[in-house]
Specification:
- The chain has about 325 residues and is an alpha+beta fold.
- It has eight helices and 15 strands.
- It has helices at about 40-60, 70-75, 85-100, 110-115, 125-130, 165-180, 270-285, 285-295, and strands spanning about 20-25, 30-35, 80, 140-145, 150, 185-190, 190-195, 205-210, 215-225, 225-230, 235-240, 245, 260-265, 300-305, 310.
- The strands form four sheets. It has an eight-stranded antiparallel sheet with strand order 1-2-6-7-10-13-14-15, covered by helices on one side.
- β14 (about 300-305) and β15 (about 310) form a beta hairpin.
- α6 (about 165-180) runs antiparallel to α7.
- The two termini are about 35 Å apart.
- Mean pLDDT is about 95; it is low at about 1-15.
Length: about 325
């Protein structure tokens, strides 16, 4: 995970900037901000959302040896491992999204992904890759009907919810804010965000980053009460011999997908937008956009290696 970010003091203006906080969680930068008539009450809601993210991270982080998902990875190839229905339910949903994307999104990428170290500029050698690749297949993961246990049908299989958990966490926090009466606000976790309502009149405007220029944007999207997820080859990577090795792995090869530089997906559920963004990245510009075009309510923008920008038909009016 990246080094911790300093916590930014909460804003006190309820009408102008709202109230919010920025913290380092889930290996990324988390920001939550709400607009409320009572600034103190709004800040308590933001704090409760941050606490919920801590709880989710403790349950689902592969960086924590005491998390449930780490226990699954240690033992599920030998016998079913008991889990909370919350984790079992999210893993089941991830498997459903694997089916939806034709296997392009696959949480068993960790079977090979664990051998990549982007800080140390390390990747698996050919022998390790060949030995581990058969363990990547979402069909190796079996969730019990009551979602209270998980088992693997292949030795060496491991799972990682890094491609879906942040979007799901944003969705859970946003749902809690809405239930508490918040009508305008947002929760972001790295490249994933869930917006509540509009920006007190105008829409939320999200810039899609230029893959090669930090701080520059290629285009912008106007959003209202939607989720958005962006995956790019500039997030976690290292270059060797002119080849970029990044964290979005193609389940078929165990190596970085390279037909796109960036994918942004918008829609009503951040869990789905995050998974679809990974799936499109793997499937490529033509097949990936066609796939999203078949999912009602979701649209995508992709940037290819030549910096060409393509998008699904539903974004044309925007």
């Amino acid at each position: 995970p990246p080094p911790p970010l300093p916590t930014r003091p909460a804003a006190t203006a309820a009408r102008g900037e709202g109230v919010g906080d920025v913290q380092a969680k889930m290996g990324t930068r988390i920001e939550s901000r709400v607009w409320a008539d009572d600034a103190a009450a709004g800040q308590r809601l933001v704090a409760a959302g941050m606490a919920e993210l801590d709880r989710i991270e403790a349950l689902m982080s592969t960086y924590r040896d005491d998390s449930e998902i780490s226990a699954v990875n240690r033992g599920a190839a030998a016998a079913p491992v008991a889990v909370a229905p919350e984790l079992g339910g999210l893993v089941r949903r991830a498997l459903e999204l694997s089916v939806l994307t034709g296997g392009a999104f696959d949480i068993t990428y960790e079977s090979v992904g664990r051998y990549y170290d982007y800080r140390a500029r390390q990747r698996p050698d050919a022998a390790t890759l060949a030995a581990s690749l058969p363990a990547i297949d979402y069909r190796h993961v079996v969730v019990a009907p009551d979602a209270r246990s998980i088992r693997f049908t292949h030795p060496g299989t491991r799972i990682n919810l890094g491609g879906i958990a942040k979007g799901w966490a944003c969705e859970q926090v946003a749902a809690g804010l809405r239930a508490a009466g918040v009508r305008h606000g947002f929760v972001t976790a790295g490249g994933d965000a869930r917006f509540i309502g509009d920006r007190r009149g105008p829409p939320w405007v999200v810039g899609i980053r230029d893959p090669d220029r930090d701080g520059a944007t290629v285009t912008r999207l106007a959003l209202d009460d939607q989720a958005v997820s962006t995956s790019g080859d500039y997030e976690r990577y290292f270059d060797t011999g002119g080849v970029r090795h990044h964290h979005i792995l193609d389940p078929r090869t165990g190596e970085s997908a390279r037909s796109l530089r960036s994918v942004t997906v918008v829609g009503p559920d951040a869990t789905v937008t995050e998974a679809l963004a990974k799936g499109v990245f793997v499937r490529g510009p033509v097949d990936g956009l066609a796939m999203v075009g078949q999912v009602a309510g979701y649209d995508a923008v992709v940037i290819d290696p030549a910096h060409g920008v393509r998008f699904t038909a539903g974004l044309a009016p925007r």
